[in-house]
Write a structure and sequence with these properties.
single chain; about 170 residues; alpha+beta; 6-stranded antiparallel β-sheet; disordered C terminus
């Protein structure tokens, strides 16, 4: 059975249930950071966040895939065949530590289709003195910085040394 993520505005997420034991001050910091990210989105990209209550507790190291608790995607450039997306998520790492990840994803044009390549990534584990809110704020700052960078996926692929759009294809036509 596939678990379906709930979706909506960040404020609508049940933060206390998603992150058991989180305090009101930390929730306020998460909400303020999410609001800042939503305000930095391109006008054509309506804010939408996703969450899965099932992942509020560490599901174990043998879990298939990444157990995402809450996430969003900012579409910077999108066409049927190419894209630049900025992603932010809070998930569980294999060792049972929460992790906040921010990344830039572009379409893959490798011979073997990987769908997306992550060409920039920030991964912050929540351990020691680092709080979830502090890591989330730092990741949001990176995503906001990326919203002011060029959005052309070809530029991001070139920077990462990845394959460009094949000569026999044009954007929008397969």
């Amino acid at each position: 059975m596939i678990a379906v993520m709930a979706e909506g505005a960040f404020e609508a997420a049940p933060h206390g249930r998603l992150f058991p034991g989180i305090g009101a001050v930390e929730v306020a910091r998460l909400r303020a950071a999410a609001a800042a990210l939503d305000a930095a989105r391109p006008s054509a990209d309506a804010p939408k966040w996703y969450w899965l209550l099932k992942h509020s507790v560490f599901p174990g190291p043998d879990t298939v895939g990444i157990p995402v608790i809450v996430c969003t995607t900012v579409s910077m450039h999108a066409s049927p065949d190419d894209w630049t997306e900025l992603e932010l998520d809070v998930c569980w790492g294999r060792q049972g530590l929460l992790q906040v990840t921010a990344q830039v994803g572009v379409a893959c044009f490798c011979e073997v289709d990987h769908n997306t390549h992550y060409v920039e990534e920030l991964a912050l584990e929540i351990e020691g003195e680092r709080s979830l809110a502090a890591a989330f704020e730092e990741a949001v700052e990176h995503v906001i910085d990326w919203t002011s960078a060029p959005s052309d996926p070809c530029l991001w692929r070139a920077k990462a040394g990845l394959s460009s759009l094949p000569d026999n294809r044009t954007l929008g036509f397969v």
